[in-house]
Amino acid sequence: MIIFHDPRCVEYFSPGHPEQPARITGSAAVLKDRHPKWEWRESFAADEIALLRAHSPEHLARVRNALNDFDADTPAHR
Predict the structure, then answer these.
(1) Are residues 40 and 77 located together in one domain of the fold?
(2) How many helices (H) and strands (E) does the chain have?
(3) Which band of pLDDT confidence, cut at 50, 70 and 90, is reported for residue 77?
(4) Half-sphere exposure of residue 43, counting CA atoms within 13 Å on the CB side?
(5) How many other C-beta atoms are found inside a 10 Å radius of the C-beta of residue 27?
(6) Up-side HSE of residue 18: CA atoms within 13 Å toward CB?
(7) pTM of the predicted model, to two decimals?
(8) Each residue of 38-73: pLDDT tens digit?
(9) Rounded to whole angstroms, how far apart are CA atoms 37 and 52?
(10) What is the pLDDT of residue 73?
(11) Which of 34, 62, 67, 73 has the highest count of CB atoms within 10 angstroms of its CB?
(12) 1 and 39, same domain (yes or no)
């Protein structure tokens, strides 16, 4: 199993949102302990070609031009 993980995920915090820094670090620690043979890799930003394999150009434009969070569960990061 290969797990792609970005340690920067703990930098996101929103009061009341279930994805909290402690939950992310705790989950990663448990998985590493229980599955020592799993390979952990850092994630990386996808390029335009890769993004267009999964999303329409219109969707990418909407995400790029977002001024506010999409909803309470989907923040817009710049």
Answers:
(1) no
(2) 3, 2
(3) low
(4) 10
(5) 12
(6) 2
(7) 0.64
(8) 999 999 889 999 999 999 999 999 888 877 776 666
(9) 33
(10) 66
(11) 62
(12) yes
Residue where the block lists tokens 């390979």: 39
Tally of domains within the chain: 2
**Same-domain status, 1 and 29:** yes
Asked if 15 and 33 sit in the same domain, the reply is yes
Asked whether residue 55 falls in the same domain as residue 38, the answer is no
22: number of Cβ within 10 Å: 9
* Domain assignment of residue 21, given as a range: 1-44
Residues 62 and 31 reside in one and the same domain:
no
Same domain, 30 and 52: no
Residues near 37 by beta carbon (within 8 Å), at least 6 away in sequence:
1
List all residues 6 or more positions away from 78 whose beta carbon is below 8 Å from its beta carbon.
Answer: none
